[in-house]
Design a protein that fits this description.
The complex is a heterodimer of chains A (516) and B (156). With 516 residues, chain A is of the alpha/beta class. Chain A is built from 23 helices and 16 strands.
Chain lengths: 516, 156
């Protein structure tokens, strides 16, 4: 009798809804029934609403079972799980699950597919092929490919990655750094985490390519402390890469030295801002720096530094492998390639959808998401995290394109899409935007530090019905000041969600409390 | 959740592990909080001396980051996500339930259980999310929270 491979994700969301218990129960039941299995803890495919999602390899095909609980496991074995038997949880072959097949998996293609902590499995799936190709092609060719691909920073700002890399490559210095921003603090986003947990060696390869391309011998990953499972997976992957000779001195006899240090954040949202992150990496308070100098000129410890988001870096290996044209063919206008959209909040089928730019928000929410989890109508959708605007149900036909969002006073940011049904009180959401800014402001500039607290007070007065018109004007003025005069996006963009509530959901202020 | 006691030796050992360089301050403090739960006054003085920083520098960093507690927390720490994706799935009601059932406000401790807010656990497709003693839970209803708290108390 041959050994049957069974996959159970070891990924934060899957584990948060019982994947570890399912894995333990599967091992126990296999032992009890004498079934010969190999349990593999893969990453998640990103169909989070189906977690825990178990797969069984039968005849070269992976049969998926969704929403499996530990108590389902004996029944699954009785139904012939190891042969892909029929069961209420059975979804069919994983590569026929509709949520997954209509995606453009460029960056996340190994997520779910491989054992994240197996160098062998990684190598079998193109692992380190792009780094090897980079060694052959040379640094300049890699920088050109990234530039020509049109890849823009996926952390939120959307700055062209190639220009950043070229700037660092052309700056003379005895030491340069790659700093990977894994401080994924935006609510509604989890793509960095999914990639690091499902394909950590892929991130290591991406950072090594960046280091080779710009002449940096040292990389840092700045990971938020709210991701403890990610930390343990990434730390193990770094050891595996070192043991395999893919990090360290003279990597694979290329003459290129590169190593990565994994640093933890400490619960500060603003440390996701690149210069605050650099301060934190230097062991200091995460306070935003003035720009210029740009990090590309004077970054970590004053040295030229590439600061890139996890997904940005993760998009690079396939650009090297398949060519920049293949990437730039996808997308629309100046938004090239794919983005990992994250469907979250009140949504029936939440999860990660990697798609080319150009689809509409409605397609994502309806076709993938299946509408709200509550079954009630969509009232508002916040795109781009706590600094992103709330879109109304009438605005959902907007195309996912950086510039199209900027045109309506919104932003795509890191691709988080948080859906609210019609029970939400938008006045409270506007208040929360200001409150969050007050809690998380680094305090360096006045508009952000003081403005956010005053914002909460003004909104409280509006909610209480005090001089509503006067306070409305005051809030608009405060938003203008914060946007124009703040040092970074924290204070500068907190007005986005607030203004969007004033523009599209003003009735929610009128309904709470009587005008006095 | 049993925490290791903190003393001069354990702190020095952590400094050695990370390297006695000023830039390791955040990492050392994080490791201290993870092992011991909080950062005592004596530790701040000791770190200043061992990392060649002023006490004001260390105080500044400790006060800046949300993770760095300067008071001992309860034996268990329950963090409830307060960010938008969880709000959309009822985290405000869940928070009210937690306040009532644990009989403490946010940042407070009762019966050796500390209740804290957290702004996103990255579990936004399984909202609302809660972290208990460092483990993330998803799709947490008030009933589920009661269960989890019950299991946590049994583990004492």
């Amino acid at each position: 009798m041959s050994v049957t491979k069974i996959y159970v994700p070891r990924e934060t969301s899957a584990v948060s809804v019982g994947a570890d218990e399912v894995a333990i129960e599967i091992a126990r039941e296999a032992k009890r029934t004498g079934a010969r299995i190999e349990l593999i803890r893969n990453g998640s495919w990103g169909a989070t609403w189906l977690e825990p999602l178990v797969e069984v390899e039968v005849g070269g095909m992976r049969i998926a079972y969704g929403n499996v609980s530990a108590s389902d496991v004996p029944g699954l074995f009785a139904a012939g799980l190891v042969d892909g038997g029929e069961h209420d949880c059975r979804l069919g072959p994983i590569n026929e699950v509709p949520y997954l097949i209509n995606q453009d998996r460029w960056t996340f293609w190994r997520c779910g597919l491989i054992d994240p902590l197996s160098l062998e499995d990684f190598r079998l799936h193109q692992g380190f092929k792009a780094l090897e190709k980079a060694f052959v092609d040379g640094a300049a060719v890699v920088v050109d490919a990234v530039t020509e691909s049109g890849l823009r920073g996926r952390g939120g700002a959307g700055f062209p990655t190639g220009i950043k890399w070229r700037t660092v490559a052309e700056t003379e210095a005895d030491q340069k750094y790659i700093a990977c921003n894994a401080d994924e603090g935006d609510s509604g986003t989890f793509s960095d985490r999914l990639l690091m947990e499902g394909d950590p060696l892929g991130l290591i390869e991406s950072m090594a390519i960046a280091g080779f391309a710009v002449g940096a011998s040292k990389g840092y990953v700045y990971l938020r402390s709210e991701y403890p499972l990610t930390y343990s997976i990434l730390a193990r992957a770094l050891d595996i890469a070192r043991e395999g000779g893919w990090l360290g001195t003279n990597i694979q006899d290329s003459g290129f030295d590169f190593d990565i240090e994994l640093h933890l954040g400490a619960g500060s949202y603003v440390c996701g801002e690149e210069t605050a992150m650099l301060e934190s990496l230097e062991g200091k308070k995460g306070i935003v720096r003035y720009k210029p100098p740009l990090p590309a000129h004077e970054g970590l410890f004053g040295k030229p530094t590439v600061v890139n988001n996890v997904v940005t870096l993760g998009s690079v290996p396939n650009i090297v492998n398949l060519g920049s044209e293949r990437y730039s063919e996808m997308g629309v206008n100046r938004s090239k390639g794919t983005l990992a959209f994250q469907l979250a909040g009140n949504i029936r089928r939440g999860g990660l959808v990697e798609k080319s730019f150009g689809i509409t928000l409605r397609e994502l929410i309806d076709d993938w998401g299946g509408g709200t989890a509550s079954g009630r109508p969509v009232k508002a959708v916040q795109v781009g995290g706590p600094l992103g605007a709330y879109l109304s149900a009438e605005q959902l036909d907007i195309t996912l394109d950086y510039e199209a969002f900027i045109d309506i006073g919104a932003m795509i940011g890191h691709g988080g899409i948080v859906v609210f049904d019609d029970t939400v009180d938008m006045a409270q959401q506007a208040r929360f935007a200001m409150e969050f800014c007050a809690i998380e402001s680094c305090g360096k500039c006045t508009p952000c530090r003081i403005g956010s607290t005053r914002g909460v007070e003004v909104i409280d007065r509006m909610i209480a019905g005090e001089n509503r018109e006067e306070n409305y004007d005051l809030l608009v003025e405060l938003c203008d000041t914060m946007e124009a005069a703040s040092l970074c996006a924290m204070g500068g963009m907190t007005p986005y969600p607030v203004r969007s509530v004033l523009n599209h959901f003003a009735e929610d202020f009128a309904s709470s409390g009587d005008d006095k | 959740m049993a925490r290791e006691p903190i003393n001069r030796e354990t702190t020095s050992e952590l400094v050695r592990q990370f390297g006695a360089k000023p830039e390791m301050l955040v990492q050392v403090l994080q490791a201290i909080v993870m092992r011991h739960g909080w950062i005592p006054e004596e530790t701040i003085r000791q770190l200043a001396s061992e990392l060649n920083l002023s006490r004001a520098d260390v105080y500044g960093v400790v006060n800046y980051y949300h993770d760095f507690r300067t008071e001992p927390p309860g034996e268990h720490i329950v963090k409830i996500c307060q960010a938008e994706a969880c709000q959309a799935m009822g985290s405000r009601a869940l928070t009210d339930h937690a306040r009532e059932s644990l009989r403490t406000d946010m940042h407070g401790t009762h019966n050796d259980i500390t209740l804290e807010p957290v702004y996103c656990l990255g579990n936004c497709a399984c909202a609302p999310a809660v972290m208990i003693d460092g483990k993330t839970h998803g799709r947490v209803t008030p009933d589920r929270l009661n269960e989890l708290v019950g299991t946590m108390k049994e583990s004492r």
